[in-house]
Amino acid sequence: MSVPEREFAPGDGPAAKVSVSLRAGNIRAVRERVGARGFSAYVDAAVERQIERDLLEEALQANETACGPIPQELRDEAAELFRSVKSAPELQEEGGWRAHEAS
């Protein structure tokens, strides 16, 4: 793996070729969604989203340590908001929101 001399933030910097191992079912699913030419971009976007989720989880844990747990009422409200956005009709169109994320 060729590592650039400078450090780049997630989502920044030039593309670099790396070798990774993926399960056959995941490879098939990605290819069905984006074809062979969009494979790298799809995987790169998935990695970036996972890094964002990890950082968010770390921030939430730090906040909980500093301020105490999030009240269940707010957790329930956030879960309901997520469900309502997730089921929005405009996201049910052909391809849905996942097709837009990968582009």
UniProtKB/TrEMBL annotation:
Q: What is this protein called?
A: CopG family transcriptional regulator
Highest taxon of the lineage: Bacteria
